[in-house]
Each structure stands twice: as structure tokens, then as C-alpha cells.
Amino acid sequence: xxxxxxxxxxxxxxxxxxxxxxxxxxxxxxxxxxxxxxxxxxxxxxxxxxxxxxxxxxxxxxxxxxxxxxxxxxxxxxxxxxxxxxxxxxxxxxxxxxxxxxxxxxxxxxxxxxxxxxxxxxxxxxxxxxxxxxxxxxxxxxxxxxxxxxxxxxxxxxxxxxxxxxxxxxxxxxxxxxxxxxxxxxxxxxxxxxxxxxxxxxxxxxxxxxxxxxxxxxxxxxxxxxxxxxxxxxxxxxxxxxxxxxxxxxxxxxxxxxxxxxxxxxxxxxxxxxxxxxxxxxxxxxxxxxxxxxxxxxxxxxxxxxxxxxxxxxxxxxxxxxxxxxxxxxxxxxxxxxxxxxxxxxxxxxxxxxxxxxxxxxxxxxxxxxxxxxxxxx
Length: 378
Prior knowledge:
Elements: H1 3-19, H2 22-43, E1 49-55, H3 61-70, E2 76-81, H4 84-93, E3 98-102, H5 106-116, E4 122-126, H6 131-161, H7 168-176, H8 206-231, H9 239-268, H10 274-298, H11 302-319, H12 330-334, H13 337-344, H14 348-376
């Protein structure tokens, strides 16, 4: 039997062993479902929670302007209702999470806040405090801020200039002519190119999360390698072939997952182009497999290795630019496979760095594998 046929046969056998595991199959099918749910969640109208919005009569122009900002599509769904009593009944029934009552004298409250630092512009009733309600209040503050900032600006001029001011309408036109509709958050590549403005924010960390998940698949396959060594499953193979079986195990665990990650990127709209994404994922697998095997060889005991897996996964999610680019512990961060993959997505030069990273992992991993096998005995 040729070496190519032998390799293919072992690959098929190891893959069949994994595909008989319900947990592994569940992970594979959950990857595209997770991507689809994120895309749906980001495009859904009633995404996170609903808030009842009530405008006190008579409705002032400022209250109407704030209500229009609150009703813009976002994670917080503001539903306008006719009166506070009906809104509070909806709150009690659990159909909304909070009630916001915008008072009719909103302009006067803005001026009062600018002069005294205190005002009663909005009355809030809500259910038990949680993270989403805190985020919802941030949206409320953002809706009130334009008019409130103008009141602060007008009060500042009145106190500092000590001279007659222009008419309020003229001053308002001047003030708001300096505002901009540019987005506060901009997503750019490392080369400074702005990403698609219509890309949903919720799907932005998807690529990084899936890259970490691929590495997790490789780490989890390391637990099978410990069992294989303990039970002497490959003892009848040659010494050289036996040495590389763990690497093959990592690749067999990651390749089906990589295909599902590729499908997830396409389904979520995150992929840049299908062939390029697939080639990059296939190029990422050797570096992740070598990294996983190096960690396994450095942990002589299975329980220690298993205990370190959650720590390494948490480190990757925190240090690698998955959610935020915090630039913490840069030397360690550059050694983590997801960092190299995420950088390679946006830059041709970084793709070469991914290849160099893989090549740099070969000597220490080969040495660690040889030392481990020597210590265990040929």
C-alpha cells in the first residue's frame, strides 16, 4: 500500500470515529445555525426587547423629535402607545420591559437642566433591572441628547458672551449645521479600508469566534490522543507513523468543522469571496493543528491538558481581536493561531505571515513530539 493510500485510509477511519460522536455532530450542525441566527437576530425588528413610548399631551416638537429617534430600527424596539395607563398595563402583563413617558414641557426641562443641572424630562417605569434595560436607557439618552446639547450650548453663550444672542431659530440653524451624520463606530481593515456599512454589527465577531471554535476542536481531539496512547491503539504502527498520528487526529477533527465554518461565513454574509475564504481556512488548519499538538506535548497528564483548555479558549477570546482589539499582552497574542488567521483575512502580507507562523511552529512541535514519544518509550 502506498503512503498516500495509507494516509487516506487512516484519515477516513479517524473521521468515521468522530462522526459517530453525537456531541461532535451537534457542534458541526450548530455552527451554521449559529451564523443564521445571528444574521436573523441582527435584521429582526423586535430584536432584544420592547419599550412602550408615551408622549404626554400636548405633544411638543422636541418630544416628537425624540420619539422619532427612539423609533428608529435598532436592538431596542420602541412601541408608541396612546396613554400611560395602557402602557403600564402592558408592562404588568410582561409584553413590554419598560415604559418611557416624554413630558410635554420637554423644551423647558432642557433649559432647566442646562441652568440647574437637574430636570424631569422623562418618567420611566420598568421591570427588574438587567443589562438590556441599561442599554435601552443609553438609547433614550442618545435620543434626548441633540436638543439637550443645544440647550447647554445656548446657556454657555448666554453666560460667557454676556451680550444679546441671535434669535433662537437662527442660533439653532447655526448649531445643527455643524452636526454630522457620520457613524460613531467605523469598521476598517488593518490597511485602513472601511468595511461594508450595511454589515450587521452582531455578525462582526462571528469570524473570530468561529476561528477560536476551530482551535477548540483541535484541542478537544487531543483528549482522544491521550486515550489512544493509554490504550495502545496504534502500537502496531511504525515509530515514525505513530509519532504523527496525533497531528492527523487534530486535522480530522478540524477539517469538517472548517467546512461548516466556511458555510457559516457564507450564510451570515460575512465572507468576502467563497473560494478565498475556503483556501484561507484550509491554510489556517495546519497552524492550529501544530499549536494544539505542541500544547498537548507540553502537558504530560490528560487531566492537566483538559483543565487548561478553557483557560486557553478564554485567552484567545480576550487577547485575539475577536470582539475588541485591546492589544493586551502582545507577545502572547501574536503566538495564538486566531490572531494570525484574523489578520490574514484582510491583508496579503499577513497571509505570508500565517505561512511563516506555521513554519515556525514546525521545529518546536516536532521536538516536543519526539521528546514525548522518547519519554513514553518507543
